Amino acid sequence: MEKVTRFQVSKRLIWGSSISLAVLASVPKLFDTFSKPADIVINSSITFLFSLFIWYYNIYSLPKFTTKRTSKSFVNGKLFLSVLLGIAIMVLLVVAHQELFQFAQMDAPIMFELRGVLINLIVYMFVHLLFQNYQTRQIGSELERAKMLNLGAQYDLLKQQVNPHFLFNSLNTLKSMVDINDPNSSDFILKLSDFYRFTLESRKLDLISLREEIEILDSYVYLLKARFEDGFELINTLNDEQLKAVIPPFTMQLLIENCIKHNVVSLEKPLIIKLYSENDCIVVENKVQLKRGALSTGFGLDNITQRFAHLIHKEIVIEKNETIFKVKIPAVYDNHNS
What we know:
The chain is an alpha+beta fold. The protein has 2 domains: 11-152, no CATH class; 161-330, Heat Shock Protein 90 (2-Layer Sandwich). The protein is built from 9 helices and 7 strands. The strands form 2 sheets. Strands 2-4-5-7-6 form a 5-stranded mixed sheet. It has a two-stranded antiparallel sheet with strand order 1-3. A hairpin with a 2-residue loop joins strand 4 (271-278) and strand 5. The two termini are 18 Å apart.
């Protein structure tokens, strides 16, 4: 979990502003012909010490170690408490300096009090605004973390939803093969085992190479061929360079599954799917031969779209007309494996 940043105010700002206020407070004394350098320093030190106290009091009175939020109103109880405490501190500072430096010519106590109230209001307002900005950034960070956690949870859910019916269909096919003593039953079991081994291994990854994806797809296609025989064909023309691209696991399998779900697959009307590269995209294309009464929920393509948006931050492109259906997925060649 990301560590929450503690609210802080720069020490340079605190000390620099306190020194600046002390210097400004001494300006009238510079034009007083009766003032001595010692008088200027003593009067300025009161302003300096008071400013430091007000800075640190206002900072440490904030709930920076809790999740509580400060009041949105500038005028509230904390401001009145700060002003009252400031008046008391200024009185103590003036009295202490009068006792310690009886020889010095000091400003009237009321001038110190008015100066103290003004400094108190300025510092309080500045700290208040800084803390409100800090809380706004913290809320933004919390929202961003929540968003990322939500996206991660959605992606995990999507990975769990890959192939929900495929095992059922495969076991039905295997049962049919066993019933007729098909000699390819053993090979079918091995391919089914390979496919689910790949599935378990790939679920741990967000992205895999297209070469690995094609290896999974080969087992998947073998199982489909056992089910549909010559009613299904996949033509793959991707070369070795294109196989270096990375994609979310099961992208190709989901696209093939989507084609089978919505199109007629039969010996009389074979479904031919082409897999090739075009303009930095991997293309899955099939001839449209829609099943009668087939309804599309859009879940398969939506699954792929969300995973590409979450992991690669790119969009897939869908092109379709009355005869051809294409899905173009961006080919990314950086190593994103996690």
